Amino acid sequence: MTEMTSSTAASWRDYYELCKPRVVYLMILTSLVGMFLAVPGMVPLDILILGNLGIALVASSGAVVNHLIDRKIDIKMARTHNRPVAQGRVEPMQAAMFALTIGVAGMAIMMIWVNALSAWLTLASFIGYAFIYTGYLKHATPQNIVIGGLAGAMPPLLGWSAVSNTIDPNALILVLIIFAWTPPHFWALAIHRKDDYAKSGVPMLPVTHGEHVTKIHILVYTVILVGTTALPYFSGLSGPFYLTAAMASGAGFLYYACKLMFRPKASTPMDTFRFSIIYLAIVFVALVIDHYLV
Length: 294
Hints:
Elements: H1 12-18, H2 21-38, H3 45-69, H4 71-74, H5 84-87, H6 92-114, H7 116-140, H8 144-152, H9 155-164, H10 169-192, H11 194-200, H12 205-228, H13 231-235, H14 240-262, H15 268-293
């Protein structure tokens, strides 16, 4: 396949897709949780709106850069071949200008109306995802998602620092939870899309070391993740309600990881991937409920 479609066919939906909205929505959920947990009462409305808008715009800019850098391998993969830049509906220069515009706008919002600390942390997250992970690590090592996952784990800290103008240890615990969650979440998808990654030349773990080794890694990281989710309880950030929700949902994640390891079906990798998204939402929503209502 080659780039066939004229960029004149680009619509607002193409630019919306460039922003990876579903990924950004999940990031904003965790940023919101960071904001809510940073204060005993309600988050100031201006920070709530402008902080998350700025974070969302910079995260979307990073997603556009990801589309731009990966356009030649996207065209080779069934999951990504119809992306706007890969298909030529949005030209590389147009994508680059779009990324620059929304990225600068997001940084300006953070700098002017939020605070400099959260702005610089947001920029660091952007650089880590758009350039260090996408531009280098993704193609350099099968541990790419482990090392590069730190950038994607930053939103709770971004939200927390937007409210408090500090880097709090409890915010770092939230980052650690997402950092531990990212490998089993993404490797489950990588197993399902192993042939695509092999064709594209990206050295994902299932391609370089096989599915069995990847499944062992998923199980080990899931155990680490479940242990990590207990940290907010022991640090005093949350109480028994959160711990119960985290352990119950963690048991569900462990069930899927064990099923993937020992009794897999063709649908198990994607079932595990989908549950991992639900799992993360449960953990972070439980933190907020525990903080305000329990």
